[in-house]
Amino acid sequence: MACFLVPMVLAIITTIIQKAAKTLAKKIKLGLLNTLLWGGVILLALEHIWHGEVVLWPPFLTAMANPADIPVMLHEMATIGTTMAVISVVTWIGINVISYVMPKIVAIKEVYYKKPPKIQ
Fold first, then answer.
1. What is the CA radius of gyration of the chain?
2. Pair 10, 36: CB distance under 8 Å
């Protein structure tokens, strides 16, 4: 129902950080995290609109129309929304680690596996 709101809050925070600390944001590739988060948010929001869980008029979230559905919505946000945000951040960390380690691995391979010069 509203699982996309958790990554949306994180995406808003990281976007603000990216705009405020541009040098740091470039260094840690914060734009990539923003892309992952906003892409997931947009995709899930469209999916929820498609299934009628989100409408374009107040109260927007259909779970808010019936007070009995609010605990279910909050549980979904706490479990699924948090999991989605964590997976996005873990993926971003993995990409950063790989992009940091790969040039070092290539440099080591070049040193150890250097082919001897051909004698003519």
1. 22
2. no
The sign of the dihedral angle between the CA atoms of 87, 76, 31, 43 is: positive
pLDDT at 117: 65
Contact residues for 64 (Cβ-Cβ < 8 A; gap 6+): 70, 73
Q: Name the packing angle between helices 30-50 and 82-112 (round to 10°).
A: 140
For the segment 30-63, what is each residue's pLDDT rounded down to a tens digit? 999 999 999 999 999 999 999 988 888 888 888 7
- One-letter amino acid for residue 41 of the chain: V
User: Bridge-partner residues for 54, per DSSP?
Assistant: 61
**In the chain, what percentage of residues exceed pLDDT 70?**
97
Q: Over the stretch 95-115, which tens digit does the pLDDT of each residue have?
A: 999 999 999 988 888 888 776
Widest distance between CA atoms in the chain: 85
- Contacts with 8 (C-beta within 8 Å, 6 or more apart), sequence order: 37, 41
Element (H, E) at 80: none
